[in-house]
Amino acid sequence: MSRLRKALIAVSVGMAASAAFIMTPADADSFNLVVNYSCTGGIAGTQPVTLQARVNVPTVLQVGSSLNLGWKLDYTGTRRFISPGYFEAGALTSMVGSIKLTGAWSGSLEALGTKEQVGLASTVPLEIPEALSYSAHLTKAGVIKLRPQNLTMDFLPPKSEITVNDDAAGVKYDDSWMHDPNTRDEYGDHGGDVHTSTTKGAKAGITFTGTGFEYIGRRMPDVSRVRVTVDEDASGEVDPKLKDGKPTNATEGNISLWKRMDLPYGEHTVTIESLDAAPIHLDAFKLHTKAMVEAPTLHTSTCVPSSDTDIVEITVKDGSLSPSPTGDQTTPPPTTPPPTNSGSPTAIPTGTTPTPGPQSTWPTDGLVSVVPRGSSTPTTTRSATPTATKYVRAQVAKIPKGGVETGEAPDDPSNAGALGLILSGSVMIAGSATGGLLLWRRRAAHAGGDKR
Predict the structure, then answer these.
(1) How many whole angstroms separate alpha carbon 98 and alpha carbon 152?
(2) What pLDDT score was predicted for residue 7?
(3) Which UniProt keyword terms apply here (predicted)?
(4) Which positions ≥6 away from 240 have C-beta within 8 Å?
(5) Which tens digits make up the pLDDT trace of 409-436?
(6) pTM for this model (two decimals)
(7) How confident is the model at residue 134 (pLDDT cuts 50, 70, 90)?
(8) Residue 218 clears pLDDT 90, i.e. is over it
């Protein structure tokens, strides 16, 4: 390989390394804010549930970058949020975290996390969202102060139809009942077992959360009539000796003897009672929950910081929002007449707050626009006339999960010096290579001519 080619390769490598160094952003400073919460009400049960949240906050950002906050939540202590009843898989726990903002932007930001649950029984511990996150697009330099506020935890039950067997812990009996764990296969009892009593007035029941239920028992000859009471309504009655209004001679297990499907969502208690001195059977209860769009408020738990929370400051430095790819910074002529200096700024109607869509643009005078992940970055429109509304409440996308991005720090001013040093070195390498080539050619001439 010729010396000239080696010199050119060295220069190319040096220039590429310089470019890569300049285009690599430095990591932004960040701060982990630890907040302890005490949660009461709703699915917290009768005693407080304690949580710890770790909020990762970048402390130095540039205009044009995104403010990304991430929450990591964990239980502390031994108490947990508990399931309010029996449900199929698919229930959701959701938690909303609130951050109060002052300084360059006044308002609040909310972050949402959700966690899908497996099949649930009454009082079973619930899983909580592992992380909450949101992203806000920064449009003006300044200092923003953040302070965590309350959290709320909600529970959204799925559309559900779940059978609770007669031997489940949630089914209660008086002392007159006996359990047969291995019934004959031809009876078809649910779970292959059944509870039986021959005492008049024998009672059994269940407390559940939902919108309906079915009493499952046996249809057969010589059994007692059964009164079914729902909460305070004792009007239900069924005679298991009858099938289609006529006496039966067969024994059939796992039969829906009585049901009610019009209950309002909430907690209900069902009791069955023997009306005769004859056998009564309880095989199971089938519990129903209708589909819901919003989480019922009776399950909402409010989490309050256990002590005063720290304030974290974020410094947003000046920077280019969207530099032109061609380097042309010429501003196109306005397509609308310039505003007149009437002394009246462009005002948003009193008492209203504009609500942006995923690609909406906020005014840029002291505001922070919010961009859901995966959507396009909004175009910032500057106006010669400031808007009258100084602050706008943020709108934040739901993000069930994900890591924390801390943004980018401002470019280091020393990069310019580093570039000059590397380019100077590259020129020196190229000069040395060229000088060596000329000296080699001169020696070759003395020896009998140029070698080509």
Answers:
(1) 9
(2) 41
(3) Membrane, Signal, Transmembrane, Transmembrane helix
(4) 217, 218, 219, 220, 223, 224, 225, 226, 255, 257, 281
(5) 444 444 444 445 445 454 454 554 444 5
(6) 0.63
(7) confident
(8) yes
Distance (Å, whole) CA 20 – CA 113 = 37
Closest CA to 27 of 63, 77, 61: 61
More confident residue, 389 or 318: 318
Give the number of residues written for the chain. Answer: 452
Contacts of 208 (CB under 8 A, 6+ apart): 85, 86, 122, 164, 170, 267, 268, 270, 285, 287
d(CA 90, CA 40): 24
Instruction: Of 71, 32, 76, 28, give the one whose Cα is nearest residue 50.
Output: 76
Query: Does the pLDDT of residue 403 top 60, yes or no?
Result: no
Residues 139-153, mean pLDDT to the nearest whole number: 90
Residue type at 186 in one-letter notation = E
Determine contact, residues 381/420, Cβ cutoff 8 Å: no
Alpha-carbon distance of 112 to 122, in angstroms, equals 26
Give the pLDDT score at 391.
Answer: 34
Tell me if 130 sits within 8 A of 71, measured CB to CB.
Answer: no
> Is 164 in contact with 285 (CB distance < 8 Å)?
yes
- Could you report the per-residue pLDDT of 11-58, keeping only the tens digit for each? 343 333 333 222 223 244 787 889 999 999 999 999 999 999 998 888
Answer yes or no: are the C-beta atoms of 396 and 134 closer than 8 Å.
yes
Q: Which residue from 133, 80, 99 is spatially nearest to 311, judged by alpha carbons?
A: 99
Contact predicate 303/51, CB 8 Å: yes
Closest CA to 164 of 206, 195, 197: 206
Alpha-carbon distances, residue 310 vs 159, 377, 420 (angstroms)? 42, 31, 44
CA separation for the pair 258, 286 (Å, rounded):
11
Residue type (1 letter), 49: V
